[in-house]
Amino acid sequence: MNLDFRYSKDGLIPAIVRESDTPGRVLMLGWMNRDALDRTLETGFMHYWSRSRQKLWFKGETSGHKQRVVRWFTDCDRDTLLFEVEQVAGACHTGYRSCFFQELDLQGQPKETEEEKVFDPAEVYQE
User: Could you point out which of 20, 46, 60, 80 has its C-alpha 20 to 30 Å from the C-alpha of 88?
Assistant: First the structure.
């Protein structure tokens, strides 16, 4: 398998994640290092590198909202990955299906959010 991608200086590559069954609906953007990519390919479920926590994480390890890989692509420069996934519940930790739920007007001001949350983060992420 040719996994010779162009990682950034810090060893990361952006991973765009979209739903496989909704045409083009982007769920999130995450970052992967080589270990995250290896674990994703080994298990068939998305793993990422958390830049804020500086650790590997399995999407859904706390919430149960896993992302099963259906297929994946690289761009022509081999410096960005695109994954199509089957998403359980929501991808966004705020309770929405997608992290891209906030529409903006042409001045950059937020428009009223019309999308409903698919889960309550307070119930899922109890501390």
Answer: 80
Structure-block tokens of residue 22: 């909704």
- List, for residues 85-109, the tens digit of each pLDDT value: 999 999 999 999 999 999 999 999 9
Does any domain span residue 52? yes
CA 58 to CA 119: how far, in whole Å?
A: 19
Choose among 97, 90, 92: nearest CA to 114.
Answer: 97
In the chain, how many domains are there?
A: 1
Q: Please compute, for residue 43, the number of CA atoms within 13 A of its CA located in the half-sphere on the CB side.
A: 15
**What CATH number is given to the structural domain containing 85?**
3.10.20.810
In terms of residue numbers, what domain contains 39?
A: 13-116
